[in-house]
Amino acid sequence: MAKQLGAKPRIGLLGTGPWAARTHAPALAGHPGVEFSGVWGRRPEAAAELAVASGTRAYEDVDALFDASDAVALALPPDVQAPLAVRAAAAGCHVLLDKPVATTVALAREVTEAVEAAGVASVVFCTLRFAEPTARWIDEQAAAGGWFLGEAHWLGSLYGPGSTSAYAASPWRREKGGLWDVGPHVLSVYLPVLGDVTEITAAPGPDDTHHLVLRHGSGASSTATLTLSAPPEAAEAALTLHGTRGRAEMPRWDGAVGAFGAAVDALVTAARTGTPHPCDARFGLRLTEILTEAERRAARG
Fold first, then answer.
1. Please, how many CA atoms are within 13 Å of residue 221, restricted to the half-sphere of its CB?
2. Where does the Gfo/Idh/MocA-like oxidoreductase N-terminal domain start and stop, copy by copy (predicted)?
């Protein structure tokens, strides 16, 4: 049974890596409306260090953290995240998931089914849907309609020459590349504005690069070039829509901590009202379905 939220919901954190330490923990520690109930990690020493830095406590037993929390945020590799999200939901905890929810449809479906069976709220943290400039822009473009074409380039330099990014040590990013790491960001914009994906064409490019051509339920089409291996000089994240009102370029956004705070608010609202958020576990499942099909088609050449 889903936990009822008090005046100040208790939210725990699963994960201790760079993303957890730089985004999730600061947002939870600094959020005036929630109690940061604790940290669990696969490395107890890292959990203890992050807990001290965040003014909370570390848990060596993840089930104990579930007991002490009304909700949990997960900052873990996707296929580690999924089974723990299932356990959290079964314990009645509302779940704030990271993207992608999982890298297999079966695992993503398990998360969705567990959330729905337990009646807990879920939100998938797609940064662009919660960062104030981009979230407002997406809502405006979805309401305006009339779009004919979308063009996106998300050229990360995580594995580019000279990269010193802490995220470069992530095994799942190294294995799955830009399609799975930054592809959810692009899809999180396209789906609410252009409609669900109905057809996919995909082709591999250099290194981990993927080129996608998508057909949407609205009749519009879109393209996306995704990579984590661009030279630093070529790095960019840009998305442009073309339609009856001309061109609309997605605005820049500043960091992820504020966006994650907005995602926390969205989860609390969904838990209190019982109204699913548009970026819930079912949306996360759909992202995994689309990316799985794109990966399959690219592999076929």
1. 7
2. 10-121
pLDDT digits (tens, 9 = 90+) for 203-245: 999 999 999 999 999 999 999 999 999 999 999 999 999 999 9
The three-class DSSP label of residue 253 is coil
* Order of strands, sheet of 246-249, starting from the edge strand that comes earlier in the sequence: 197-204, 210-216, 221-227, 147-155, 236-243, 246-249
Helices of type H across the chain: 18-19, 25-30, 44-54, 62-67, 78-90, 105-118, 132-144, 171-181, 183-194, 257-273, 281-300
Q: Measured in Å, how far apart are the chain's first and last C-alpha atoms?
A: 47
At residue 178, φ and ψ (nearest 5 deg) are -65, -30
Q: Do residues 265 and 79 lie in contact, with contact meaning Cβ atoms separated by under 8 Å?
A: no
Per-residue pLDDT reduced to its tens digit, 57-105: 999 999 999 999 999 999 999 999 999 999 999 999 999 999 999 999 9
CATH number of 10-128+257-278: 3.40.50.720
Each residue of 252-287: pLDDT tens digit? 998 899 999 999 999 999 999 999 999 999 999 999
Task: Give the per-residue pLDDT at 163.
Answer: 85
Domain positions in the chain are: 10-128+257-278, 132-251
Rounded CA separation 191/211 (Å): 17
Fold of the domain built from segment(s) 132-251: Dihydrodipicolinate Reductase; domain 2 (3.30.360)
